[in-house]
Amino acid sequence: MQKPSNPQGTRDFGPEVMRKRNIILDIIKVVFKKYAFEPLETPAIENLSMLTGKYGDEGDKLLYKIRSNREIVHEIDEEKAQKINELFPERWIPGESKLGLRYDLTVPFARFVVQHRNEISFPFRRYQIQPVWRADRPQKGRFREFTQCDADCIGSSSLIHEADLIHIYDEVFTKLGLSNAVVKLNHRKFLEAMVDELSLDFPVARFTSTLDKLDKVGKDGVIKELMDAGVEKAKCFQLFELITVSDLNVDMLDQLASSFNSNTLAMDAIEDLRKLVGFLGDSPLTIKLELDLSLARGLDYYTGCIFEAIILDSDIGSVSGGGRYDNLTDIFGLKDVSGVGISFGVDRLYEILETQNLWPDHKSANQSVLICHFDLESQRYGIGVAQKLRQAGISTLVYPDKKRINKQLDFANNKGFTHAIVIGQDEMESAVLTLKNLSSGDQTKQGVEDCISILKS
Amino acid sequence: MQKPSNPQGTRDFGPEVMRKRNIILDIIKVVFKKYAFEPLETPAIENLSMLTGKYGDEGDKLLYKIRSNREIVHEIDEEKAQKINELFPERWIPGESKLGLRYDLTVPFARFVVQHRNEISFPFRRYQIQPVWRADRPQKGRFREFTQCDADCIGSSSLIHEADLIHIYDEVFTKLGLSNAVVKLNHRKFLEAMVDELSLDFPVARFTSTLDKLDKVGKDGVIKELMDAGVEKAKCFQLFELITVSDLNVDMLDQLASSFNSNTLAMDAIEDLRKLVGFLGDSPLTIKLELDLSLARGLDYYTGCIFEAIILDSDIGSVSGGGRYDNLTDIFGLKDVSGVGISFGVDRLYEILETQNLWPDHKSANQSVLICHFDLESQRYGIGVAQKLRQAGISTLVYPDKKRINKQLDFANNKGFTHAIVIGQDEMESAVLTLKNLSSGDQTKQGVEDCISILKS
């Protein structure tokens, strides 16, 4: 007999985990919707040609490829099939894969936008929450199937979108009880300006990937790597004078203009950030917004603002990242469409809420009742009670089998029911029910309508 | 440049379709929860060994198999790889698939239950709403990726679960505005009793698959098929006297006992249905419940009650099916666990609601506002207004770009915003806003708090 198992790097989400994951996802969804992001879902299966070459060589290696017998039967050449079968008897099935599993939500979004560009009114704000697959080496906190949670605005270059995304960060983290979140902000053109102003003989992409290691190897490590690549020591120190962390405000931007000697690239970044400050307005954020000129996020992909969110006092890296890109849809032939987006890491948020035990008390918000009984007659009576509770929106189960009351109550506790109602002869005659609060142990006696009032209060 | 496309048999769900699909899924989820079904999600990727052999030969052929370069690199023998490459230069990648895509939600549920049997308190009620994949020939209404929507109770043989499932049908269809739904009910043992009582020299499985064609080929067609297989004409007519359609009530069950000559198998079915009638109680259903002794549902899988739901006045077949099974977890080595479940066909429900235009007016339930403006100053002012609307839970977008007001209003109409607020110099000075209802064209002037009251009413 087969020992049942799920594949390495995948997870079953049982009821308890599902309820907690849904707390996170529901909060994110509600906030996305309030900012007029519209839902989109794309298929898990994409034509492999849409995926290959979009994620670099490393990404290509991590693509899951899909085949079906139908395709194999249709496509394989008889003679070659014969030879293959001789080489690999039985268990080897050759065949070309034409399909692959979604690797992220960004490329399918770009495909959707280009494919439907004539039906879409731009700017288009979409959110998308779906699993993606990567044939990565499984390790702690890294999975082969995991959920991404993206929001993007496409078809508009206004900085108002960046302002909205910062407000979304503020609201999502606050609602999750993570007001100790820090959103770091940078602008790609500051990074370009550093390379330009210091006349570093470096491609910007290589510079950003070096700078991206700052967290891991520290300032000295970055300086060493730069010097190994031929950058003079003095320039390295000049560089680290530019790489500052500060609040985002107009005064700070004026200072930056001066420390960058009004370098044209830096001035472009500063102009964008001035607009952003204008759109953010005066109302204070609950979370901290930090202009961090070391923020690079490895990707050679962003062209404007870059975001990263971390939670203080957690040993988990960033829980969200994003930025502006000016050429997302180029890969599918649609040029000059600017977009900006962010992506939340659901697993990391889950991990932080779990470790710090910050889950909102969803039991009290979601009362659930097990109806216990002594015999078939009281069980049937219980169904009528259950229907009334359900009509009031309360999750209710009539214990289905014939068991002793204490077994039924054990079941209620194991399953996390918040309340039990025990029905016997007395209760049926008087229509006065015993409502037992399973966390406090309190018991009260009342009619079904009063039970509902208590459960809904 | 690649022409962007999604694979045959798959679909992108844009905002409008997503909102409609979510109406269906949200109603089903809310009802499942009220009946104390708990959420479960399993990975899309399963070990292929968990899937093969579970769906018959036909099913095996429809499994999607997955590979990754990682697996190929690990497993392929150098010498053979060389030969393969000679045979299939470049584009052919050989390799054994160890993974497959989920084909339904039932087998992964059985795997989960057996794998976690020591952590689960039985009976276990779970619902699961996830996509499944089948390498089927795409055709109208049949997709390669589609969503299943299952609820099962496992680990209890009480007929109270069947009663709850019927109440779920009643509530889901009523909430969807489909009170013309008919839930057909049969019991596997009636089918066995027919074979037994008439001494048909037929395996029950073949008999049920013949009977299952009744809808398609009619009574004459079924009789022909039975006679071709050697059943006497007289017995065929006797059979069709047994195959009745009626209400489900105690009198009817007494009649059936007599027409089946108290055949033991029939009496087992009748005893179950008597219990079911007891659990259903006296409160009337909105939908029609029909005892239909011709209902077979092809599958040789159900051991007790069998369900099927259809919507009258639609040319679409069943929108839900299900039944009791006593050996679901046998395949993974856990014996004697009885379960019962149903599955809703989301695509078919969607099709019916779309064709009959029965969508609840979700616009009025979900107000959304576009804030239009004349210049940067009024746009910035609009952000403050937007934040107040969002705090009140109203989906709001400040039009991001600089366009003429009528272009902004066109955008609002295209996107399906329900309202627009236009902000100019007057509005900023007076703090009195113009709220325009985009479906009625009505315009009113008031402060932001009054706008919120109107939008929330």
Description:
The structure is a homodimer of 457-residue chains. In chain A, strand 10 and strand 11 (320-325) form a beta hairpin. In chain A, the strands form three sheets. A nine-stranded mixed β-sheet of chain A has the order 1-5-6-12-11-10-7-9-8. The first copy, chain A, folds into two domains: 15-64 and 103-355, Bira Bifunctional Protein, Domain 2 (BirA Bifunctional Protein, domain 2); 366-456, Anticodon-binding domain (Rossmann fold, 3-Layer(aba) Sandwich), CATH 3.40.50.800. Chain A contains 19 helices and 17 strands. The first copy, chain A, is an alpha+beta fold. In chain A, helix 1 packs antiparallel against helix 7, helix 8 packs antiparallel against helix 13 (264-280) and helix 10 runs antiparallel to helix 11 (233-242).
Keywords:
homodimer; 457 residues; alpha+beta; BirA Bifunctional Protein, domain 2; Rossmann fold; 2 domains; 9-stranded mixed β-sheet; 5-stranded mixed β-sheet; 17 strands; 44% helix
